[in-house]
Each structure stands twice: as structure tokens, then as C-alpha cells.
Amino acid sequence: MPYVASTLFAKVVVALLVADVDRARSYLIAQRAAHTARLRELTAVKADPAATLSDVVAADFAIAHLDADLRWLHATLGRVADWHREVHP
Q1: How many structural domains are present in the chain?
Q2: In this structure, are residues 51 and 45 in contact, taking their beta carbons and an 8 Å threshold?
């Protein structure tokens, strides 16, 4: 398994290890909502006529990371039950 250093990943794994599927799922859903809200904020920064090139480049960087996290959140939400069964046979 590759080394993963992410608070998001760690919180989901801990919730699954303590046999709390609902907690893991709730956390994933809450994070998805928070990431989506932040994505909207950053998109607004890019659309702001007063935004500098530095602002736009920084927003692009953050958006790319949020997009990756959102894809992971979506995939993991679909796997939570299977993951729980694997950890707690």
C-alpha cells in the first residue's frame, strides 16, 4: 500500500476500524459538502475581475486538489460497506 498522509483518509479509516460505518459515511458526506462549498468559493475567485494571475493560479492549484478529494470521496462512499466487511469479517 502506498504511503498516504491525509487527515481525511485517516478519519475515515479510524471510523471504519472502530466499526462505525454510519460515522464514516457521515464524515464523507460532510466533507463532500465542505469541499463542494470551497470549490464554489475558489471558482468565484477565478471569475472575479479583480483577481490577479497569482490568485487564479493559486485557485487552480486548490481546485485540482479539491477535485481529486471529491473523486476519492465519491468512490469511497460507494465502498464503505464493503470496506467495513473486509475489516470486520
Answers
A1: 1
A2: yes
63: in domain: yes
Closest CA to 29 of 6, 53, 8, 46: 8
For residue 32, tell me if it sits in a domain: yes
pLDDT in tens, 17-74: 776 778 888 888 998 999 999 999 999 999 999 999 999 999 999 999 999 999 988 9
One-letter identity of residue 42: L
Q: For every residue of 58-83, which 3-state class applies, written as one string?
A: HHHHHHHHHHHHHHHHHHHHCCHHHH
The residue range of the domain holding 46 is 7-87
Q: Where are the alpha helices (DSSP H) in 1-89?
A: 7-17, 21-47, 53-77, 80-87
Q: Is residue 1 part of a domain?
A: no
Place of cell 466499526: 19
